Amino acid sequence: MRNKFLLVLVFILSMVSCNNNLVYSEFRAMENGKWTMDNSVNFEFSSLDSVQPHNMFIHVRNDNTFQFSNLFLITELEHPDGKTFKDTLEYKMAEPSGEWLGKGLGSVKENKLWFQEKIVFPDSGVYKLNIVHAMRKNGDVDGIHTLDGITDVGLEIEKSTH
């Protein structure tokens, strides 16, 4: 029921706050607000302007069961020609006081996180982005298998205006 409410709310907000530069937007819901380490979040997109630079954003929605002030992600962006670019990213999710960053009412906050700035997609075909979390507790070698409190992960691509 909660996910349906959030989906309706996101749809309404997206209709109210239209972004003319938005060329791609998609979200994946995490089952029961838990993101397992072996659950890669995958996006595929194509037919983007091959000359126009774009900005890419990763959206992360978290609730109060998320126990950390930051989030580590590993991304793999595969181009249609098979070239793959892998990156490890760290995002701040909360202030030192514990106050969540991001926007949203109630216990769910949405963070729009910079991923790629002014990227050009010169090749025709399908681009693929895979995202996994890479969270670990301080001092632990093994990663956290199940990350509580991540409700949704999304990808947005916008035309760069600068």
Count of distinct strands: 10
If strands are numbered along the chain, what order do they take across the biggest sheet? 1-10-4-7
Instruction: Bin the helical content.
Output: under 10%
Mean pLDDT: 89
Q: Could you give the distance between the termini?
A: 41 Å
**Strand proportion:** over 45%
Mind summarizing the main beta sheet? 4 strands, antiparallel
Count of helix runs = 1
Q: Would you mind describing this structure in some detail?
A:
This protein is globular. The model has no long low-confidence stretch (mean pLDDT 89). With 162 residues, the chain is mostly beta strands. The protein is built from 1 helix and 10 strands. The strands form 3 sheets. A 4-stranded antiparallel sheet has the order 1-10-4-7, with no helix packed on it. The chain has a 4-stranded antiparallel sheet with strand order 3-8-5-6, with no helix packed on it. The chain has a two-stranded antiparallel ribbon with strand order 2-9.
Quick overview:
The protein is 9% helix and 46% strand. The protein has one helix and ten strands; from the N terminus they run H-E-E-E-E-E-E-E-E-E-E. It has a four-stranded antiparallel sheet, with no helix packed on it. A four-stranded antiparallel sheet has the order 3-8-5-6, with no helix packed on it.
List the helices and strands and how they pair.
Elements: H1 2-16, E1 22-29, E2 34-36, E3 41-45, E4 54-62, E5 70-78, E6 84-92, E7 109-119, E8 127-133, E9 146-148, E10 150-159
Antiparallel strand pairs: 1-10, 2-9, 3-8, 4-7, 4-10, 5-6, 5-8
Which short descriptors sum up this protein?
4-stranded antiparallel beta sheet, 1 helix, mainly beta, 162 residues, globular
